[in-house]
Amino acid sequence: MGVRGVVLGVLAVVFVVWSILPLYYITIAAFMWETDVVTRPPAFIPRSFTLTHLLRILGFPAPGPTGEMLRPAGYPVLEGLTNSLIVAAAVTAITMIAAVPAGYVLGRYQVPRRNAILMLIIGSRTLPPIAIVIPYFIMYKTLGLWGTHLGLILAHLALAIPLITWVLMGFFATLPRELEKQARIDGYSRFGAFARIVLPVAAPGIATCAILAFLTSWNEFVMAWMLATGSPAQTLPTVLATMFTMNIGLPLFAVANFLAILPAILVAVILQRHITRLRIVDPLTVVVS
Fold first, then answer.
1. Residue 37: CB partners within 8 Å, gap ≥ 6?
2. Domain of 35?
3. Over the stretch 67-93, which tens digit does the pLDDT of each residue have?
4. Does residue 160 share a domain with residue 88?
5. What is the pTM of this model?
6. Which of 11, 22, 99, 289 lies deepest, with the highest CB count within 10 Å?
C-alpha cells in the first residue's frame, strides 16, 4: 500500500469516526444520569446506566438517582413518534406503488415526451421545500388539510415520488434486457415478465429505494413544521425542534433524539444486504428501446 492508500485510509477512518461520534454520544447520554452527562471533559465511556429518561419521555413516572419518583416529562414524543411512523409508512408504500412502474417504463422504454418528463422530475427536485410551503399552507388551511395525517402524506409524496422514480429509472436501466426477451419467449405477457422476472431481480434496488422514501418522509422538517406543528398530527422532528427551545435536561433531549434515529437505523440494518448489491446509472445517459 502506497502513501496515497495510507492517506485515503486515514481520511476514511476520520470521516467514519466524525460521522458516528455524535450518534454514539447521544446514545450513551440518553441512558446516563444527568450529573454524569454534564461533566467536563465529556464522558465518552458510560459512567452509569438508567432507563429513567426513556420511561419519562414515553410518559411514565420513573425513579430518580436518589430513589424518588419523577413525573413523566410531559412532551409529546410518543405521539410524534407514532405520527412519524404512520406518515412515513404510508408515504413509503404509496411512493413505491407509483415509482416502481414509472421508473421501469421510463428506464426501459422510449415513451413519448420522455425527455420532458425527465426534466419535469428534475425540476420538481430543484425547488426547496421552503419555497413552496407557504402555498401549501394556504391551500391546506382552505381545504381543511392542515394538521392532518393526510395533508402530511400528500406533501411528503410530492418530495418522495420524483426522487424515487429518478433513482429507480437508473437502476432498471442496469438490468439485462434479455430478461424480458426470454420471458416473452417463454410465453409471459409484458406485465407477466415485469411481475415474475424483473421485480424479483430488482429487489435490491426496490428495497433501497423504499429506505430512501422512508427516510425522506421521516427526516422531513420544513413541511411538517408549517403544516402540522401543534396539531395532533405533528411528527417527531417538529416535537424535537419545540423541545430544543425549552429548558430541558440533556439526557431527556438525548433520549428523544435516540428514538428519532433508531427506526431509520433499524430499517437500514435490516435491508443492508440489498443496499450493498445496488448499482445505479444516470437516467440521462440511458439509451432506451
1. 29, 43, 250, 251, 254
2. 3-70
3. 889 999 889 999 999 999 999 999 999
4. yes
5. 0.86
6. 99
